[in-house]
Amino acid sequence: MEVAAELTPAAVRALVAAATGPEGRVVRRLPAASERLVCRTLDANRNALRYRPRLSASASQIRKVVIELSNRMPTQGHRKILSQVRAFGLNVGLRQVRRIRRKHGLQGEAPKAGVRRRGRTTSTHVGVATRPNQVWPGTS
Predict the structure, then answer these.
(1) Exposure pattern of 28-39 as b/e (b: 16+ CB <10 Å)?
(2) Given 59, 72, 100, 130, which is the most exposed site by the fewest CB atoms within 10 A?
(3) Per-residue pLDDT, 5
(4) From the CB of residue 40, how many other CB atoms can be counted at a distance below 10 Å?
């Protein structure tokens, strides 16, 4: 009989946490037992213990977070905003972030095409030769 098949993953996590205690081992009476042994006894997958469920957020909460992050980091694109939203633990997709940003006019401005502007020099010795063959015709 599989015990874990009848339990939800959250229940299995709670059982293993209770059995292993805060030190990661089963209570004092069984010092040699480990998380691996408890999972094997329960027929539970150890990966289920590592799983952290994401918050199921409402659309308004996601919209608020995306708008706030976009205003705080105006030069960032939708991918960077998406990773920041996911860092909060919200389950959101790339297209949803793009849709929200487009609807609220939060798209970053693309750089303009054209001639590259170069800085002007502050040197007073522009085009003055300090040694032979330093200034060639057309370079001054």
Answers:
(1) eeeeeeebeebb
(2) 130
(3) 61
(4) 11
Q: Which residue has tokens 């009848």?
A: 6
Express each pLDDT in 10-60 by its tens digit: 777 777 777 666 554 444 555 556 778 878 887 877 887 777 666 667 888
41/37 Cα distance (integer angstroms): 6
Residue 34 β-bridge partners: 25
Report angle CA 11, 14, 18 to the nearest 5 degrees. 140
Single-letter amino acid code for the residue at 72: R
31 and 25 Cβ atoms separated by less than 8 Å: yes
Span 128-133, mean pLDDT?
78
